[in-house]
Design goal:
The protein contains seven helices and five strands, in the order ααααβββαβαβα. The protein is an alpha+beta fold. The protein folds into two domains: 53 residues; 93 residues, no CATH class. Strands 4-3-2-1-5 form a five-stranded antiparallel β-sheet, sandwiched between helices. Strand 1 and strand 2 form a beta hairpin. 12% of the residues are buried.
Length: 156
């Protein structure tokens, strides 16, 4: 296995895709029920293989990652050849920017002296998928582009 197995919640979200995966292997619902009842190791193999396929697909695309904490965050635009970072740090402010209220506060106080921005661009040092997956393992979350783009628009 190249990546970790998807969580139960993620697998439930992807149940239609998993059904297609099984169908591509000529495993119908009845056959899957028999496998689940009689061969837990085969179930594990299929879940692991499906998880790897999902991770490969996700990591192959342009994507956005974010790593948030109450007083700073890092948002990444992960393109095919390079990664763009915007980091935001709050100082001397009692706001939690991981909450909707804190986020709104940030957007309204973006030019305050208590808000510091850093921008950076870097090329991938080795395999792009491995780098992105490593960031996820260290706590980065896959996100929509909204947060990155809203901050990037302010910095233009």
């Amino acid at each position: 296995m190249n990546y970790h197995r998807l969580s139960k919640e993620q697998l439930e979200e992807l149940h239609e895709e998993f059904a297609k995966y099984l169908a591509a292997l000529s495993i119908d619902r009845n056959a899957w029920e028999k496998i689940k009842a009689n061969s837990p190791e085969v179930v594990d193999q299929h879940l692991d293989q499906f998880s790897d396929l999902v991770w490969e697909d996700v990591l192959a695309k342009d994507l956005y990652l974010e790593h948030l904490s109450p007083n700073h965050f890092f948002v990444f635009e992960c393109l095919q050849e390079e990664m763009h970072l915007i980091a935001v740090k709050l100082t001397n402010v009692d706001q939690d920017i991981t909450t909707p209220e804190g986020w709104q506060w940030l957007l309204h106080h973006i030019h305050d002296a208590s808000v510091t921005f850093y921008r950076s661009t870097k090329k991938y040092e080795y395999d792009r998928k491995e780098e992105l997956y490593g960031m996820i393992l260290k706590g980065a979350q896959i996100s929509e582009s909204d947060r990155y783009k809203s901050i990037a628009d302010f910095l233009v």
